[in-house]
Amino acid sequence: MCGIVGYIGDQQAYPVLIKGLHRLEYRGYDSAGIALINEKGDLSCYKAKGKVSALEAAVSDKDVTGTIGIAHTRWATHGEPNEINAHPHFSQSRNLALVHNGIIENYKSLRSMLSSHGRTFCSETDTEVLVQLVEYMQESHDCNLFTATQLALKNVVGAYAIAILDKNNPDTLVCARKGSPLIIGVGKNEDGKNPEFYLGSDATPIIEYTDQVIYLQEEEIALMNRAGDLTITNLANVKQTPQLSTLQLSLDQLEKGGYPHFMLKEIWEQPDALRTCIRGRLNVSNKDVILSGIIDHKEKFINARRIIICACGTSWHSALIGKYFIEEAAQIPVEVEYASEFRYRNPVIYPDDVVIAVSQSGETADTLAAIQLAKQKGAFLYGICNVIGSSIARATDSGTYLHVGPEIGVASTKAFTGQVITLALLGLAIAKEKHSLSDEMFHMLIDELEMIPDKMQWTLEHNKDIASFAQMFTYAKNFIYLGRGYNYPVALEGALKLKEISYIHAEGYPAAEMKHGPIALIDEEMPVVVIAPKKGMYDKIVSNIQEIKSRKGKIISVVTEGDTVVRDMSDYCFVIPDTRDCYVPMLAVIPLQLLSYYVAVAKGRNVDQPRNLAKSVTVE
Ligand code: F6R
Q: pLDDT over 90 for what percent of the chain?
């Protein structure tokens, strides 16, 4: 949600910043802006509505020189997406320029206080209030930028990651964070002497230059200067020791690698991504599952009265599959909660509850707040995240990374299957400790899980030619997705994928719920996607399909290879190889991902950057 990039060093800042903005664009793309201080000491600022490419076009004939700068790509929260509301924002004197990710909750009261002191505002944003507040502190306390930022932030309620330029201090860059992530990259200037510094809302704009980073902690403020000094304090001005980490990310993971869209690349990456996820964790020869995250906390899981999984969106769907699996394998009751609902209730949490956060980004504000609440109530926290070093990963007591590589496409694909397989590993690891499965069943589940990446590859190869088929459904205004048991969450996920990238309305239902109302929607115009593998509830789902057929609905089914009954009843069929019931979701979701992708492409949608969405939802 909004991307921040910054630079101070010997290089020209503009190319670093613009490339960084392109890499961060998946976080927001309503508008973009850049501020630089050139050699003469002028502070220039350029903004454009829309994509980063619009900003590039807007500055093509402008002076973009300077070796210090900040930049921003926006996902609008306060004020419509236009040039005025785009960041950076200026202080009254135009000496300070600031970019911000997050929400200042008390911005209205701060704005009236500042107005009463003669400050006037150009935009509707909470960010402009922040930069005015910093300057107000600078002037009223006669202090430097760093101290003024500390003082200002003490008065702020809300979440922020910020970076500030000061025209009068062209050799320093100040940044701070609370609630929204911010990373400082420490590189080497060409002379090899003083370090240069990069800033990023995540590591993607930094990795090209350095793998040495510092994750700024909650309520920390950092000052970087051209001499290569880095000072970090908290809001109370207590000095903090910067912890240098090495990034586990490579540049080619951030490129499209010949695919037209990141989403398609990430769909095809799934077999390899899942192989990496289970590597070293699933041992077929010894018939074992080793999750280092639970080794030191076995007792917590063995004695857990209950597991509560908090998540949002796609991660909530994978959590639901995880619930079915963990309950079946480990015999522990599992509740799955929308993090945004959980955090605002007064949920009953027992000290022997384990609360799991599932989050690709590890930064989703609601999920983070949900686990903070659970922590206050004494629960043990476990994180299942993809982004290494993310806020949720750091806020939990233990956890497991997905290791599926960076996910850039806004619509989640490989993170979903990565979460499902990680939850399956977790269920098996707990079952091992609790001896809740027979040896025979445990071994069978291990053997079969190891084959899932190959079976995914098979599924991709056998369903790749659906572009022309997808074309036939661009007319549709609505879709229904149906599944039962483990495939009900897959139906929800298939519907979400179609909605977010093609803007076609879609609903997922448990198939048997149709007759309780939604069947009234069925007519010859309605495509109904049914996940109907030849497994446990096959006969029941065949009856559900018959009910839809007799109302002339168009059936698109996902069936097991060799199936003829559902195939003959369907207008179109996707095939998947046979596997155990509990693992079907990882295969069945693949044709649904491809379907939504190709329908969206046929409708001319911007697949990787769908309207109104952003990859990482760091605001409520
Ligand atoms: C949908 C999608 C979102 C995210 C949700 C949670 O394709 O990506 O629904 O799943 O915003 O994000 P994370 O997993 O980062 O917490």
A: 78
531 token code pair: 């996940």
Output the residue whose Cα is nearest ligand 1's atom 10: 314
Q: What element of type H or E holds 498?
A: helix 488-502
**419 CA closest ligand 1 atom index:** 14
Decide whether any atom of ligand 1 lies within 6 Å of the 494 Cβ.
Answer: no
Helix (H) or strand (E) holding 532: strand 527-532
The residue behind tokens 């350029």 is 46
Cα 162 from Cα 56, distance rounded (Å): 22
Distance 195 CA to ligand 1 centre (A): 36
If one residue of 310, 361, 423 were mutated to test the ligand 1 pocket, choosing by the most ligand atoms within 8 A of its CB, it would be: 361
Say which of 2, 310, 385, 573 is annotated catalytic. Answer: 2
8 Å CB contact between 357 and 369: no
pLDDT of residue 464: 86
For ligand 1, is residue 315 a contact (CB within 6 Å)? Answer: yes
Q: How many CB atoms lie within 10 A of CB 284?
A: 13
The verdict on the CB of residue 500 being under 6 Å from ligand 1 is yes
- CA-nearest residue for atom 8, ligand 1, is 412
The two beta strands, 183-188 and 527-532, are: unpaired
**Ligand 1 pocket: which of 314, 417, 422 to mutate (most atoms within 8 A of CB):** 314
Report yes or no: 62 and 18 within 8 Å, Cβ to Cβ: no
Question: Is pLDDT larger for residue 485 or for residue 81?
Answer: 485
The tens digit of pLDDT for each residue in 386-423 reads 998 888 999 999 999 999 999 999 999 999 999 999 99
Task: Name the percent of the chain lying above pLDDT 70.
Answer: 98
Ligand 1 atom nearest to CA at 416: 10
Q: Please state the separation of Cα 359 from the chain's center in Å.
A: 7
pTM over 0.90: no
Q: Which atom of ligand 1 is nearest to the CA of 312?
A: 6
Pseudo-torsion of CA 234, 236, 240, 246, nearest 10°?
-10
From the candidates 47, 49, 178, 615, which is the catalytic residue? 615
pLDDT in tens, 207-264: 999 999 999 999 999 999 999 999 999 999 999 999 999 998 777 777 887 899 999 9
pLDDT band of 156, cuts 50, 70, 90: very high
**Which residues are bridge partners to 335 per DSSP?**
308
Asked if 375 is an active-site residue, the reply is no
For residue 526, give every residue at least 6 positions away whose Cβ sits within 8 Å of its Cβ, in sequence order, or none: 476, 478, 479, 480, 553, 554
**DSSP assignment of 279-338:** TTTEETTTTEE--HHHHTTHHHHHT-SEEEEEE-HHHHHHHHHHHHHHHHHH---EEEEE
Distance separating alpha carbons of residues 426 and 479, to the nearest angstrom: 34
- For the segment 313-360, what is each residue's pLDDT rounded down to a tens digit? 999 999 999 999 999 999 999 999 999 999 888 899 998 999 999 999
- Smallest CA-to-CA distance from 490 within 529, 440, 445 is with 529
Q: Which two tokens stand for residue 365?
A: 């504000």
Decide if 45 is catalytic.
no
| Atom of ligand 1 at shortest range from CA of 387 | 15
